[in-house]
């Protein structure tokens, strides 16, 4: 039997030694393209070498990977999407484009390893992926990162430099109740299109608005800033305008924008349109 996609809450793959007399009666995993959620305890080199064509992989474990088995992931040269839950690795394949860390409780300094991944485009830090109140990137990196999501985290102080996030397009921060400021250096990212804030402090919203204003001063296309506050507005949301004379209103998870645009002292237009944003 040749499997292409294997998705279960949690499972193990057996070692398949090349000289095994039972090899002919074992399942062939060499054509698997999607696997989740594989137990980290079975990520031996033999197992990893047997799934060389996997492109999307999810791994879960309820304890720290003390044996370093996940470092074998470096052999998966076709891997593009990786999700790690309750476990982590210090070595990653070079072709990795999307990485999700969930409940990994890593130090923020660990992200210096992630920053060096040459092709990473999407990074999602979910539910205490990183532990601690301060994030101070110490290396230049995230050179191809387009989307950064930080969700359910106790991050309080975040300092970035001009050497990080050169081509970032979307920054999403959700349920980070202590964070008050997005680094002002984000105003220098001319590719930045969206800052989305949900369940965050009012100070963080003001910080995003300052970035928006700074981009206008620099002559760049100002970033769109979307925020929602269920504590006061329930499911409704508000969106800051991205240009002088624009007023935008956003409602529910599908974002409905009503935009008033002053084109001149004589001509004014009212435009209603719908835009979907990944929440």
Automatic annotation (TrEMBL):
<protein>
    <recommendedName>
        <fullName>Late blight resistance protein homolog R1A-3</fullName>
    </recommendedName>
</protein>
<dbReference type="InterPro" id="IPR032675">
    <property type="entry name" value="LRR_dom_sf"/>
</dbReference>
């Amino acid at each position: 039997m040749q499997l292409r996609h294997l998705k279960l809450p949690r499972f193990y793959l057996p070692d398949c030694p090349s000289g095994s007399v039972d090899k002919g009666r074992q399942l062939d995993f060499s054509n698997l393209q999607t696997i989740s959620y594989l137990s980290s305890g079975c990520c031996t080199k033999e197992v990893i070498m047997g799934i060389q064509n996997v492109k999307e992989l999810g791994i879960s474990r309820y304890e720290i990977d003390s044996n370093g088995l996940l470092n074998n992931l470096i052999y998966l040269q076709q891997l593009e999407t990786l999700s790690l839950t309750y476990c982590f690795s210090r070595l990653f394949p070079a072709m990795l484009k999307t990485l999700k860390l969930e409940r990994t409780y890593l130090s923020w300094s660990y992200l210096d390893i992630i920053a060096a991944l040459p092709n990473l485009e999407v990074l999602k830090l979910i539910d205490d992926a990183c532990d601690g109140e301060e994030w101070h990137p110490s290396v230049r990196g995230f050179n191809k990162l387009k989307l950064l999501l930080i969700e359910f985290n106790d991050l309080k102080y975040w300092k970035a430099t001009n050497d990080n996030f050169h081509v970032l397009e979307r920054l999403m921060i959700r349920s980070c109740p202590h964070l008050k400021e997005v680094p002002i250096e984000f105003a220098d990212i001319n590719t930045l299109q969206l800052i989305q804030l949900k369940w965050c402090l009012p100070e963080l919203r003001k910080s995003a608005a300052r970035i928006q204003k700074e981009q206008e001063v620099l002559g760049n296309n100002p970033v769109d800033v979307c925020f929602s506050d269920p504590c006061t507005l329930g499911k409704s949301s508000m969106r800051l305008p991205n240009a002088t004379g624009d007023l935008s209103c956003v409602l529910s998870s599908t974002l409905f924008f009503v935009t008033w645009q002053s084109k001149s002292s004589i001509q004014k237009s009212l435009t209603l349109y719908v835009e979907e944003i990944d929440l």
